């Protein structure tokens, strides 16, 4: 297997290397703010098991406790308390998260509804919520939706640092993997990655084989569209998500087991069954990331992706990490193959990658 990198510009995608333990307390190093506070009950008091608590000045649905973790982190759980030795506590709350402190996405149920987390039943006993899918963000907002007496809160977030391998695509770029020497043939596969963009249309991932098989993932009218064909000349289409050009990171998961497929964006999940009689996906031509040179079967968009793609895993392989390692290896044979196959590469002296 070898690759061609065509005009890949790297810019605004983060690249954070971290450790593997993911149950560390995170609040100690965070900055806490709030939409309002009572005197002497500011957000800095919202510490688990602390003597005081954050208490909102106004008890209404517009109150938020805002947590800046200082860098992008993986957040796996939250533990909350009310105000000690009192009947002031939060019974239910919502969570939103973001990467810039301005734009936030809500944590949702698989149905697409905003998830409401169970809080506390008194002011003292802690309540833990474990996230089925960890939150990857720098900013976390807690929005109380039901409370007793007053909105009072103490909390701790648990998680770890976040490891990122990412590429920025400028709308004319793509990465091509040639599969002719190492074809892909499987009854099962999983694809997962994150992306952000401010453009409503673009091809994210495309793989094709000689027997009519293809997998086409594209952003169309702000929604993700997955078209797949297992060689039966019958296309199966699944679509999920909305308003995905908001320049916020979105998490995508595709899992196929023979004819059954699960497609998820930001935990909003749909399930489908692939049409046709075949159960194996055979790809022996190319896999494209970020765009295609020509409009092919299964694609409704003739436009390359603009934005960041991060941690693209196909099964257990991080494709972007592999691309970086291959390119930066300096292998003379590999570089010679690049010279023969690349149409053009820009920003050569910056190695194209973060």
Verbal overview:
A hairpin with a 5-residue loop joins strand 17 and strand 18. The longest helix has 10 residues. The chain contains 2 helices and 25 strands. It folds into 2 domains: 181 residues, Sandwich (Jelly Rolls), CATH 2.60.120.200; 138 residues, Galactose-binding domain-like (Jelly Rolls, Sandwich). The chain is mainly β and 354 residues long.
List keywords for this structure.
354 residues, mainly beta, Jelly Rolls, 2 domains, 9-stranded antiparallel β-sheet, 7-stranded antiparallel β-sheet, 2 helices, elongated
SSE arrangement:
Blueprint: E1 2-6, E2 24-25, E3 31-34, E4 54-55, E5 65-81, E6 89-98, E7 105-106, E8 117-118, E9 127-148, E10 152-161, E11 166-170, E12 174-178, E13 184-186, E14 188-196, E15 202-208, E16 213-220, E17 223-230, E18 236-240, E19 250-257, E20 260-265, E21 268-273, E22 281-283, E23 286-289, E24 306-314, E25 317-318, H1 319-328, H2 332-341
Oligomeric category: single chain
- Tally of discrete structural domains: 2
Give the name of the CATH architecture of the largest domain: Sandwich
Low-confidence parts, pLDDT < 50 over ≥5 residues? 4-12, 15-20, 332-354
Shape: elongated
> What is the name of the CATH class of the largest domain?
Mainly Beta
First and last CA, distance = 23 Å
Q: Indicate the mean pLDDT.
A: 88
Strand residue percentage: over 45%
- What structural class results from the helix and strand content? mainly beta
